[in-house]
Amino acid sequence: MVDAQLPPIAILGAGSMGGAIARGVAASGSSRGIVVTNRSAAKAATLDGIAGLASIALEAHPDANLTAAAGADIVLIGVKPAMVPDLLEAVAPVLRPGTIVVSLAAGVTVATFERILGDGVVVLRSMPNTPATVGRAVTGLAAGTTADAAHVALVRRLFETVGAVVEVPEDKIDALSTISGSGPAYLFLFVEELTKAALAKGFSPADARLMAEQTVIGAAALLAATGEDPAELRRQVTSPKGTTERAIAVLQDAHLDELLGRATDAALARARELAAGA
């Protein structure tokens, strides 16, 4: 029988993403203990008082990363990519054999983790997105060279506390990041521009924002509730020779498909630059 409880977890660098995951795991009640670290007391305080979670500031406890890593079976690395190698070198000596180390850092490869941590530690690479803060993340998950099906299943359960999980080979993680990782920003930009269009048509700022935001939220809820193909839902709104059809024609004439292709290609190019240390 599979243990329903997750083992002790440490999240080193619990910023917005690490903090969201910490909250999700804690709220699920599925872990036997979570320790998170942050550099400042102010950041650590944002996670104080959450049941099942201990939040520690490095400025008050300089050895907190070592202590947290030594006591955990799963260690999530949430610091900025440039800080990852130094942190891995610091915690490598205290990790117990069989510890699972999961990267949250964009552009840092499994090979980098495995080279620094050495044998005996299992590595996985993840790419969550910011809707983790509301339990609606999409997380890409790639196994390292020594991670077996049981390791992947365990880490998958962890990330499923904050949303959906897509398992991919590591060479697809950067591409995934251009869709689900950066995708929320694309949608927020759309809401910004739709709000501006409403303002230009004479609506108040409050009404313009309400219309734009709730239209997107409602459309997403409809998509989720019906399970319909988005193209079919679009057709249902687009009456022949109607106003929506005219608007859609403008967007299609602007080659929205090509624009999104170029945008995601640009994001992928930058991800590869980051992986190369550029």
From TrEMBL:
Enzyme class, broadest EC rank: oxidoreductase
EC number(s) recorded for this UniProt protein: 1.5.1.2
Pfam families: F420_oxidored, P5CR_dimer
GO-annotated cellular components: cytoplasm
Record GO terms (molecular function): pyrroline-5-carboxylate reductase activity
Subcellular location(s) of the protein: Cytoplasm
Domain Pyrroline-5-carboxylate reductase catalytic N-terminal: 9-107
Pathway the protein takes part in: Amino-acid biosynthesis; L-proline biosynthesis; L-proline from L-glutamate 5-semialdehyde: step 1/1
Keywords tagged on the record: Amino-acid biosynthesis, Cytoplasm, NADP, Oxidoreductase, Proline biosynthesis
GO BP, sorted A to Z: L-proline biosynthetic process
Catalytic activity annotation: L-proline + NAD(+) = (S)-1-pyrroline-5-carboxylate + NADH + 2 H(+); L-proline + NADP(+) = (S)-1-pyrroline-5-carboxylate + NADPH + 2 H(+)
Residues binding NADP(+), per UniProt: L12, G13, A14, G15, S16, M17
Keyword Cell membrane: no
Binding of NADPH, residues: N65
Domain Pyrroline-5-carboxylate reductase dimerisation per the UniProt entry, residue ranges: 170-274
Annotated family: Belongs to the pyrroline-5-carboxylate reductase family.
PANTHER family the record matches: PYRROLINE-5-CARBOXYLATE REDUCTASE, PYRROLINE-5-CARBOXYLATE REDUCTASE 3
Stated role: Catalyzes the reduction of 1-pyrroline-5-carboxylate (PCA) to L-proline.
Protein name per its UniProtKB record: Pyrroline-5-carboxylate reductase
Organism in which the protein naturally occurs: Microbacterium ginsengisoli
